User: What shape does this take?
Amino acid sequence: MRLAILSDIHGNLIALDAVLADIQEQGGVDSYWILGDFSALGYDPVGVLERVTALPNASFTRGNTDRYIITGERPGPTVEEAQAHPQLVSRLAELSANFAWTQGVIQARGWWNWLAELPLEVRLILPDGTRVLGVHAAPGCDDGPGINPMLDEGTLRELLAPAKADLVIVGHTHFPLERCVDGVRVLNLGSVSNPITPRLQASYALLEADTNGYQLQPRFVDYDRQAVIEAIQQISHPAASFLTQFMRGEKISSWVQA
Assistant: This one.
C-alpha cells in the first residue's frame, strides 16, 4: 500500500497542485491523508476543498484554522491584548478581516458543514501491524505548540502519551522534523503552504507499507510562489501583505537556528 500524507494547505491551490503532481511523478498512491488547515489564510479556500475531496480514498482531519472558521475562535492577539499594546491593533484588524472573508466564502459556496464535521484524527493499522495516527497538531489536539524542534524529550513524551500508536504524523508548525521517544516515531510533515523554512518548498510524505514493514519518505516540492503572490493580489485579499511575506521568505522561523 502507498499513502500520501499532507497538511496545512491554507487555501493555496498552486502549492497543492504542485504536490499532487509530484505524487503522480512518484508513481501515484492508493490513498491520501490530509491533516487539516485546508482553507484559512489563503487566496482560494474553496478551490482547495474541491480538489482534495475529489481525490480517491482520501481521509481528512480538522486543523485549528478549520475550527476557527466554524467557531469564531481566533489565534490572537485578543482585543484586550491589542488595547494594552496598540502596536497589535493592525495585526488584529488584518486577522479579523482575513477570517471574516474566508468564512463568507466558505458559507456562500456551501462548505460550512463539511468543515464543521471534520474529525480530530485518523488511524490506520499497516500490514505489518504498525499503528499509525494522523492528527493536525499533536495526539488529542488540533492546536497549541505542536511537535516543534524546541521540545525536550520529557515534553515530547507527554505529548505522545495519548497516541496509542507506533507512528504519529502531524503538521501545524510548518516545520518538518522527525523524532522518536520510547519507541514511538513522530513525523512532522511541515506544510504545503506558508513556508517557514529557508528553501520555501511545499512538503509532504509518502508512506509505503507491506507485511515486512514500512518506509516513510518526506518529499519537498518547488512551486511558483510569484504566481501565488499575483493570485493573492488579483483578488485584493484582506491579508495580502501577511501572506506574501511567506512567499518571499520573510517568515523564516527562528527554529532554523535552534
